[in-house]
Specification:
This protein is an alpha+beta fold. It has 4 helices and 5 strands, in the order E-H-H-E-E-H-H-E-E. A hairpin with a 5-residue loop joins strand 4 and strand 5.
Length: about 130
């Protein structure tokens, strides 16, 4: 298994393929079936956000180690319009795109660590980690 899986997201096909690869990558990194599906669900949410709000972006999965523990880090980035109000975007049911507004808050709940960096006109970067 490669230490890193990096995919450009430009289409639904890219997003779907990356979700499947995330499941396999997580299993190979040592996660069981349920946590691997949680990671894949987070990848699904993040890739769909890239497509909906930026049109194109990148998703990277990497194995991480920290203080004797192992995990997987997801980094989703784009150069889209950015998020005007990150605090609001992290509230359930807030949406600037007519969706249910559960994606980013859901990813935060599913993962063990989560950070969101964004500003209008500067794109968005989400980093999330799941530990074994």
């Amino acid at each position: 298994m490669s230490a890193e899986l990096r995919r450009t997201i430009r289409s639904e096909t890219d997003a779907s393929r990356t979700v499947l690869e995330a499941t396999l990558y997580s299993r190979e990194a040592g996660f069981g079936e349920a946590p691997s599906r949680i990671i894949a669900t987070a990848v699904s949410e993040l890739t769909r956000n890239i497509l909906k709000y930026a049109g194109t972006g990148e998703l990277c999965l990497r194995k991480v180690k920290d203080f004797g523990r192992r995990g997987v880090e997801i980094e989703a980035s784009d150069e889209g319009p950015g998020i005007r109000d990150c605090d609001a975007a992290m509230q359930d049911h807030y949406s600037s795109g007519g969706t249910l507004g559960l994606g980013l808050p859901g990813v935060k709940r599913m993962m063990d660590e989560f950070s969101l960096e964004s500003a209008p006109g500067e794109g968005t970067r989400v980093t999330a980690r799941k530990w074994i």
